[in-house]
Amino acid sequence: MISFDGSSSAPGAALEARGKEEEQARGKEEEQGETAFDPAEGLRKRGFAVVSHMLIELRLDDLQAEFRETVGNFPEYSRAQLPFVLGGFSALGNPASFHNPFVRKIRQWCMAIVVQDLFRGLVHSDPSLRDHKIEQVIDRMLYRERGKTPVAETWHRDITPVTVAGDLVFGGWINLNSEPQYFSCVPGTHLEPRPAGAGTGFSQIPKEQHAAYKKRARLVAIPPGGILVFYEHLVHEVVARKYPVDMMRLFLGWRLTTDNRSIVTALSQLPEARKIPGQPDHVLRPLDELLEAQAVIPLKSGQGSPMVSKLHTTQFIESHWVPFSQNFLPAVKVWHEIKSKSAQKYGQRFLVVPRFMKSLREYGFQLFDAYSQNEQLMYKPSLGVRVLMPGREHLFQDVHL
């Protein structure tokens, strides 16, 4: 088991200062209007909302210990050594990180909370959504070591390539730290017309528009145990900023849709011309197949969840990729050959963890408990599902739009 130091401190001074400045910059009228919003109304008007549940907040210490115990016992790793993934963003890409009991429990809790506090009100307030169903989209764990800086991502919108007419797709996460986490966005931009020709996955905002968006930007605080939900096409950014504590979160995705297919299954049916190039075939497969094999789940953009960046596979093979791969059992490793004839080490091979991992079953590891019918239903469009009650381990409740 990997050993962790659980010490923590207050958020960075620069981050706090930015938050205070932006709070002061908003006029009283806007502040009063925001406090008057219920969560569903805030989501509809601003494009984001933050909700929470008392039982999760009260259990944060236990959840943090369970988070660390979970990542410290991943079966793919051979020794107790950090990091778990290369790159500053630090979202995990090993199959056990998607299917372990901890994340499956948290996803059920979050399903109950967001349906009751957000999506039910959103659907009932909009006649055009009355025939829509709810789907949770599986996403990644994030464990970012203190002091590590993510690569900045400039202003952009997230775009899912397999939506049908009338779909609403949301991103977000649950903050599992005892300190606030932050989301930088431009409120209300989800109401803007989508630009013609916008790409899929990651649609960057033209540079000439950055200054105007920056003036309207807001730094949203997600409190300990809080759940952020935002329209995926809300303009937002990833800020390259260090945190003085280990960051723990579970990313979450949602869709309101009239489709009967899950996003993951729809991605597996994309024609080759619309798939992201350079990814192995095992990345996009039907949801049922991925759950049964307990495989890495693709992002709703159609991208895989990489263990190393593309740059590591070309310029930092011996300095970073090979040493990092020593943390893994032989069963998951592959031979990587230098195929560029212009490279100094053309033809040489290195034994490394693959950039895109497969499934626990394909690697021969013991699987976690099979997904129940209700769990599987939660990840497909439906009007309601039976899930764990927030903060509880064995009590269930029915949630529906």
Care to describe what's here?
This protein is an alpha+beta fold and 401 residues long. It has helices at residues 13-25, 28-36, 39-46, 54-58, 60-72, 96-99, 101-124, 210-216, 263-268, 287-293, 317-325, 360-363, 373-378; strands at residues 48-51, 133-137, 141-144, 153-159, 168-175, 181-185, 201-204, 218-222, 227-231, 236-238, 247-251, 253-257, 334-337, 349-352, 384-388, 396-400. The chain has a single domain, classed as Jelly Rolls, CATH 2.60.120. Strands 1, 2, 3, 5, 9, 11 and 12 form a 7-stranded antiparallel beta sheet that branches. A hairpin with a 7-residue loop joins strand 15 (384-388) and strand 16. Helix 3 (39-46) packs across helix 7 (101-124). The protein is globular and about 60 Å long. The model is unreliable at 1-36 (pLDDT under 50).
Summarize, please.
The protein has helices spanning 13-25, 28-36, 39-46, 54-58, 60-72, 96-99, 101-124, 210-216, 263-268, 287-293, 317-325, 360-363, 373-378; strands at 48-51, 133-137, 141-144, 153-159, 168-175, 181-185, 201-204, 218-222, 227-231, 236-238, 247-251, 253-257, 334-337, 349-352, 384-388, 396-400. With 401 residues, it is α+β, with helices and mostly antiparallel strands. It has a single domain (13-307, 356-385), classed as q2cbj1_9rhob like domain (Jelly Rolls).
Descriptors:
401 residues; alpha+beta; Jelly Rolls; seven-stranded antiparallel beta sheet; five-stranded antiparallel beta sheet; 13 helices; 16 strands; 29% helix; disordered N terminus
Write the layout of secondary structure elements.
Layout: H1 13-25, H2 28-36, H3 39-46, E1 48-51, H4 54-58, H5 60-72, H6 96-99, H7 101-124, E2 133-137, E3 141-144, E4 153-159, E5 168-175, E6 181-185, E7 201-204, H8 210-216, E8 218-222, E9 227-231, E10 236-238, E11 247-251, E12 253-257, H9 263-268, H10 287-293, H11 317-325, E13 334-337, E14 349-352, H12 360-363, H13 373-378, E15 384-388, E16 396-400
Helix pairs in contact: 3-7
